[in-house]
C-alpha cells in the first residue's frame, strides 16, 4: 500500500473523527471496508437478533418458580455476546463482499467512490483474503450455537450471496435486504429455543417491513447517482411518494411486532396487556422519522436512517420487557 492510498479520506457518510482515524494508517482501509467507521449497519443487524432472543425467552418456562425474562441468566448474556460479535463480523464480511461485487458501480457514485476498493486503498485480492478471514471468525461464532441454529445460520449465506446483484434486476433490492438483514430474528429465537415458531416468523416479517422503511430512507441519498448508473431502488421507484410508502412500511412493522407478541401470549397461555403498550414508544419514533423526512435532502435522510439505531433499541426494549412480563405472569 503506497502513501497515496494511505491518505484516502474517509467516505462522505462515515462518522467524522471516528476511532478508525486514530488507528495505524495501514489498518484504516480494512476497518473502513468492514464499515467499522459506520456502526449503524452493525446495530441494524444486531437488533433483530435481540428481538429473537427476547421472544425466545418470553415463551419459555413462564409462571414457574425462578423464571426470568431475557438477560436474567448468564446463558442469556453469553448468547447476547455471541450475537453482538457475530453482528460486527458478519456485517463486515457482507460489506466486504458487497464492495467486491459493486466496485465498478461504487466508483461512479459520489458517496461511495471513496470506499477502499474503488479508491485503490485495497486491491480486490486483499479484500477477498480479508473476507475469508471474517467468514472464518463468523463460522467459529456460529458453531457456539445449537445445531439447528447452525444450519439456519448457514442458510442465510444464499441470501447474502445474491443481495449485491438485486439492485441490477429489480426495483425492490430493499426487500431482499429485508430478508437478509433480519435473519438474526430467526437465528436468535432458534439459539434460545432450538426451533422457530409462528410468533418468530411474524417477528421476522415485521423486521422485513422495518428494513423496507429505513433502507428506502437510506437509498434516497443516492437517487440522482443511481439513475445515472442504472441502479434500481425503492427510493427511485417511489420518488416524491416515498414518505407515504415509508409510513405504510413502518405501520406494517409495528402491527406485526404486536402480532408476534400476541402469538407469544397465546403460545404461553399468559396474557399481559402491558406487553403491547411497551411497543408504543417505538411507533412514535418511527412516525417521527416519516414526519420530518425530506426526500430530496441527503443529510436529512442520513440522519433519519441512523436514527433507526434508537428505533431498534426501543423495539428491543419492548421485547425484553415482554419476556419479563410473560415469565412473571402465572398461566
Could you characterize what this model shows?
By secondary structure, the chain is mainly alpha-helical. It has a single domain, classed as UbiA prenyltransferase (Tetracycline Repressor, domain 2, Orthogonal Bundle), CATH 1.10.357.140. The protein is built from 18 helices and no strands. The protein has helices at 3-6, 28-33, 40-58, 74-101, 103-106, 116-119, 124-142, 147-169, 173-181, 183-193, 198-219, 223-229, 234-238, 242-268, 274-277, 280-292, 298-306, 308-328. Helix 4 (74-101) packs antiparallel against helix 7 (124-142), helix 8 runs antiparallel to helix 10 and helix 11 packs antiparallel against helix 17 (298-306). The radius of gyration is 20 Å and the shape is globular. The N and C termini lie far apart (64 Å). Mean pLDDT is 91; it is low at 1-8.
Quick synopsis:
The chain is an all-alpha fold. It has helices spanning 3-6, 28-33, 40-58, 74-101, 103-106, 116-119, 124-142, 147-169, 173-181, 183-193, 198-219, 223-229, 234-238, 242-268, 274-277, 280-292, 298-306, 308-328.
Number of separate structural domains: 1
What general form does the structure show? Answer: globular
What's the assembly state of these chains? single chain
Q: Architecture in CATH?
A: Orthogonal Bundle
What is the mean predicted local confidence, pLDDT? Answer: 91
What is the CATH C level class, in words?
Answer: Mainly Alpha
Order of helices and strands: HHHHHHHHHHHHHHHHHH
Query: What's the total number of strands?
Result: 0
Percent helix, as a range, is over 70%
Could you tell me the CATH topology label.
Tetracycline Repressor, domain 2
- Major sheet description: none
User: Which structural category fits the helices and strands?
Assistant: mainly alpha
Q: List unreliable stretches of 5+ residues.
A: 1-8
Count of helix runs: 18
Cα-atom radius of gyration: 20 Å
Amino acid at each position: 500500500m503506497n502513501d497515496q492510498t494511505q491518505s484516502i479520506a474517509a467516505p462522505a457518510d462515515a462518522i467524522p473523527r471516528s476511532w478508525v482515524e486514530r488507528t495505524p494508517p495501514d489498518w484504516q482501509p480494512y476497518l473502513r471496508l468492514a464499515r467499522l467507521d459506520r456502526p449503524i449497519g452493525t446495530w441494524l443487524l444486531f437488533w433483530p437478533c435481540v428481538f429473537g432472543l427476547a421472544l425466545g425467552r418470553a415463551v419459555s418456562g413462564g409462571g414457574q418458580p425462578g423464571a426470568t425474562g431475557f438477560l436474567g441468566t448468564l446463558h442469556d448474556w453469553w448468547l447476547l455476546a455471541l450475537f453482538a460479535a457475530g453482528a460486527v463480523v458478519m456485517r463486515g464480511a457482507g460489506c466486504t463482499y458487497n464492495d467486491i461485487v459493486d466496485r465498478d458501480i461504487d466508483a461512479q457514485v459520489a458517496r461511495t467512490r471513496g470506499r477502499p476498493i474503488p479508491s485503490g486503498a485495497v486491491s480486490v485480492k486483499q479484500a477477498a483474503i480479508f473476507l475469508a478471514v471474517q467468514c472464518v471468525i463468523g463460522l467459529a461464532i456460529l458453531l457456539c450455537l445449537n445445531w439447528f441454529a447452525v444450519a439456519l445460520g448457514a442458510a442465510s449465506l444464499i441470501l447474502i450471496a445474491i443481495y449485491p446483484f438485486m439492485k441490477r434486476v429489480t426495483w425492490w433490492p430493499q426487500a431482499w435486504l429485508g430478508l437478509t438483514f433480519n435473519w438474526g430474528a430467526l437465528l436468535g429465537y432458534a439459539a434460545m429455543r432450538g426451533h422457530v415458531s409462528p410468533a418468530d416468523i411474524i417477528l421476522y416479517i415485521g423486521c422485513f417491513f422495518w428494513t423496507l422503511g429505513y433502507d428506502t430512507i437510506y437509498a434516497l441519498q443516492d437517487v440522482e447517482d443511481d439513475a445515472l448508473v442504472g441502479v434500481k431502488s425503492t427510493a427511485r421507484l417511489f420518488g416524491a411518494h416515498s414518505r407515504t410508502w415509508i409510513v405504510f412500511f413502518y405501520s406494517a412493522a409495528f402491527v406485526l411486532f404486536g402480532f408476534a407478541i400476541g402469538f407469544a401470549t397465546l403460545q404461553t397461555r399468559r396474557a399481559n396487556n402491558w406487553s403491547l403498550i411497551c411497543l408504543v414508544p417505538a411507533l412514535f419514533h418511527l412516525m417521527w422519522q416519516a414526519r420530518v423526512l425530506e426526500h430530496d435532502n441527503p443529510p436529512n435522510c442520513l440522519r433519519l436512517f441512523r436514527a433507526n439505531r434508537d428505533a431498534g433499541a426501543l423495539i428491543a426494549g419492548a421485547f425484553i420487557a415482554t419476556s419479563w412480563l410473560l415469565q412473571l405472569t402465572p398461566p
